Amino acid sequence: MINDIIGYFQKSGSDYLSLLWGHISISLLSLLIAMAIAIPLGIMVYRSKIASVIAERGFGLLRIVPSLAVLIILIPIMGTGVLPSVTALTILAIPAILINTIQAFRNLSPAMLEAADGMGMSKTQSFFRVKLPLAFPLMFAGIRTAAIEIIASATLASYIGAGGLGDLIFTGLSLMRTSLLIIGGGSVAILSLLTGLILDLIYKRITRYQRA
Questions:
Q1: DSSP of 128-175, one letter per residue?
Q2: For domain 18-211, which architecture applies?
Q3: Helix boundaries (H) for the chain
Q4: CA Rg, the chain, in Å?
Q5: Domain ranges of the chain
Q6: What is the pTM of this model?
Q7: What is the distance between the alpha carbons of residues 140 and 205, in angstroms, rounded to a whole number?
Q8: How far is 118 from 200, CA to CA, in rounded Å?
Q9: pLDDT tens digits, residue range 83-103?
C-alpha cells in the first residue's frame, strides 16, 4: 500500500498538484461568493425580527439538502463543470455565514452601543469602530465553519467534471484502488485541518488588540 502511494506521487506528482489546486480554487471562490452574499444580507436584515427569522429559517433549510442533490438539480440548468459546482458549494456555505452574522449583530452589547452614541459617533463610525469589531468573532466562526464544509463537499465537484481531489476518490472507487482513496481522502482531511489552522491564526492576528 505504501509503495503504491509513493509510486503515485513519483509518477503523477504534477497531476496531483493540479487536482489539489483545482480543489482549493473552487473552494475559495465558493467561500468568497458566499461571504459577499451572506454578510451584507445578514447586516441588512438583523434589525428586523421578521426578516431575520425568514432569512435564518429559509437559508437554514438549505443545510439539510445534500450537496449531491443540489448538484443533480443544477445539472439540467447549468450543465456540468465548475459553474454548477461553485453554485452548489456557495448555497451550502451561505447559511452558516448568514446565521452567524445575524446573531452577531443582534446580540451586540447595548452598553457599548450607548457608549458609542454618547461619544457622538455617527452611524458609520459606530458601525466600523464598534459594531463590526464586536460582531466579528461570531461572524468569523461562521466563515470558518463554512470553509471547512466547502472543502469537504468539494470532493463531489468531480462528479460533474469540475475536477479537484474528488477525482482521486472516484477513480479509486471505480478501479478498486485503495491507495487512491487514501491519497484523495487523506488530502481532503489534511486540507480541512490546515484551513482551520490558518483561519485560527488569521483570527488571532486580527483580534490581537483584544489581548493587548
A1: IIIIHHHHHHHHHHHHHHHHHHHHHHGGGGGGGT--STHHHHHHHHHH
A2: Orthogonal Bundle (1.10)
A3: 2-45, 49-60, 67-78, 82-106, 110-118, 123-126, 132-153, 166-175, 178-206
A4: 21
A5: 18-211
A6: 0.88
A7: 13
A8: 34
A9: 888 988 998 899 999 999 999
